[in-house]
Known about the structure:
Blueprint: H1 2-7, E1 11-12, E2 25-30, E3 36-41, E4 47-54, H2 68-75, H3 88-95, E5 99-104, E6 109-116, H4 120-132, H5 138-155, H6 159-171, H7 186-190, H8 235-252, E7 258-264, H9 268-280, H10 295-298, H11 301-311, E8 337-341, E9 349-356, H12 368-376, H13 383-389, E10 393-403, E11 408-416, H14 418-422, H15 424-441, H16 445-468, H17 474-487, H18 506-514, E12 522-526, H19 528-532, E13 539-542, E14 549-554, H20 557-564, H21 598-609
Parallel strand pairs: 3-7, 8-12
Antiparallel strand pairs: 1-2, 2-3, 4-6, 4-7, 5-6, 8-14, 9-11, 9-12, 10-11, 13-14
Helix pairs in contact: 2-5, 2-8, 3-4, 4-9, 5-8, 8-11, 15-18, 15-20, 15-21
Amino acid sequence: MSFLFLQQCPSPLPPPVQSPSDWRSYRPLLLPNGLLLTLVHDPTTSRSSGSCCVSVGAGSDPPSRPGLAHFTEHMCFLGSEEFPGENEYKRMLAVHGGGSNASTSMDATTYKFHVVNAHLRGVLEVFASMFTSPLFTPSGTGREINQIDAEDSKNRISDGRRRLQIFKSECGKEGHWYSKFSTGNTGTILRGDSNSNSNSNSNSNSGGTTMNSNHDGGGGYVNSKSDDIRVAGTDAEVHLTREAILYFHSLHYVPSSMTVVIVGDSSLDSLQSMAEPLFSSIPTGPRLSVEDLSKEFQESQIRREIDEAFAKKRPLTADTVVPYNPIFPLPLTPSPPIIYVPPLRPSRSLTLNFPIPPQLRNKSSSPVKLVSHLLGHEGPGSSFAVLQDRGWITAMEAGKSLEYTDFAMFQISLSLTPSGEENYSKVLALIYGHLRLLKASSLTPSGTAVLRSLWSEAKTISEISFDQSTPASAYSFAPSYAQVLQRWKTEESLRVHYEYSPDLDVEGFRERVEGMRPENAVTEWRSREAYDNAPEGTVEKREKWYDIQYKTRDVTSEEIALWSESAGSDKEGDGDGDGDGDGDGDGDGDGDGDGDDGDGDLNDITSLLKLLKLPPPNPFIP
């Protein structure tokens, strides 16, 4: 009996390495059912917060039902066996000064709440029941789909969302998990429409819905049983969709896939006494089998696709070894593309996207850190300084834009002026010249010494940043930390993004910058002027889900030659100036340059490239 009792006790895990400026106390526990529960005592917080991150997202959607993971997230809010009222959770938060929200990314779904400290226990009971015994009622299924339509409508007028959908449509390798349409709408979720570019239909009240799109993110609550909300879809469609989310939830929402973080002013022992019994009660295996569902669902395509996606599901942990699976394969044939995107708001942005191998397993030693640092620095001799002095850009940033266990993406973004837009080809020639300068520096002893010194400086700056970092608010910290714990061990979870290895991986650095060539880049140009004046040979296209018009063309051989062979760009840099700028935005162009050609262009670019240098030692770093 004693042995059995010990087996049911939670297992303490190593606490995280904390910043000297972090006043919180942490207690990570592995519960007997496999759930990772982390309790955080913060004596200064006036509101307690909680978050649960589940390692499933839109990447696990069945191809015939885009948005199913997102819809499952929504349905978890609408009552459980213990608290069947569809608005019980929202009502409790609203009357106690709290709020909640949730989000579905491509590989994770995260739920969060905050409430005044005195009412944490009551809210936790309702929150935990969302994962132990959600109801997914037929009536709620038919009505909540209208809320998905509301989000879909909102996303269609977001330039960021429109850009993302065009990028996925144009570059996403067929069948790649990242290329899926993550939001969904009535057509895709209820009927499996393969080309649903409108979220309004005869069976749904997609306009005028009273549902709150952020799940009661700030105050009041929604009466989702209001008579003015019609049920979308036919009974048969709703029934099949409900069985799909029941099955999806049963497979993916298991304790071993969950990380829970609770932050409050109560002691760690008190927080543990509240949370441990609730989350320990989540069953370790599927809550139902497919035999519990209708024969129609058992034999359906959607069931087969859910099973297939589940079998291909990738663990989120950083040490996972999976085959490299870039969203678009290299080489880009027959030629790398330029994508012209007409923004809704005024914008002139130019972005280079390079697929790179995943960096999670070598986070501390990843040379991409130094590439980002050097391309992002804004001091004399930097790309930013040279281009800004010419009046061609107003902002620039560089770094990883996507990072998963099987692929990553490096992005260089520039915000262009009207003059920069006219000279877009020279702008890109300078950026590619800077990359060749970095490569050339890694090929000589003196250049390598400079790069190693810069790595050491970046390491020191990062260590200082960690030592001076203070905790974010409980409501911000809980969900972000729950997501971090999906990837990293508890002891490294707070420090992992600040860690640098003792020395630079010079060969890895050279390999990364060598791969950032014009032949390997997808270029996005977001500008109404560039779109309207795209050169001859540009192809007009229409994005599948949002019905957005955009254009593409191949980069010409002349452009590749200009961006690859500008004279004087392969000399070793010796540095002058430092900083690590950010900025955001990009630039655009129409392929026509500024009217110069031939040797005139090359001579101008050559003179600009001679201004590029590596930054000198920073005298202010100890």
